[in-house]
Write a structure and sequence with these properties.
Strand order of the largest sheet: 2-1-9-8-5
Strand content: over 45%
Number of helices: 0
Mean pLDDT: 96
Low-confidence stretches: none
Number of domains: 1
Radius of gyration: 11 Å
Order of helices and strands: EEEEEEEEE
Shape: globular
CATH superfamily: F0F1 ATP synthase delta/epsilon subunit, N-terminal
CATH topology: ATP Synthase, domain 1
CATH class: Mainly Beta
Largest sheet: 5 strands, mixed
Structural class: mainly beta
Length: 77
């Protein structure tokens, strides 16, 4: 699935991942291909990606995540 992690200053990541884990305000959320559409708020924590190159971790202070049509967009603070 396509993943984009964007901050007000720059783009942190844009590429393919097999899974994404984000720090939701009510707990950790994980996304795989064909996940149902979702928009939710994030708290401070780590966005974890599994990619073809291995695992990647991005620390965010909060934000919003949108999942739709095998695309995950994280608008992070």
């Amino acid at each position: 699935m396509l993943v984009e992690i964007i901050t007000p200053d720059r783009s942190l990541f844009k590429g393919e991942a097999t899974s994404v884990t984000v720090p939701g305000v009510d707990g950790s959320l994980g996304f795989l291909n064909n996940h149902a559409p979702l928009i939710t708020v994030l708290k401070a924590g780590d966005v974890k990606l599994k990619t073809a190159n291995g695992n990647e971790v991005f620390t965010v202070k909060g934000g919003v995540v949108e999942v739709s049509n095998n695309t995950v967009i994280v608008l992070a603070e």
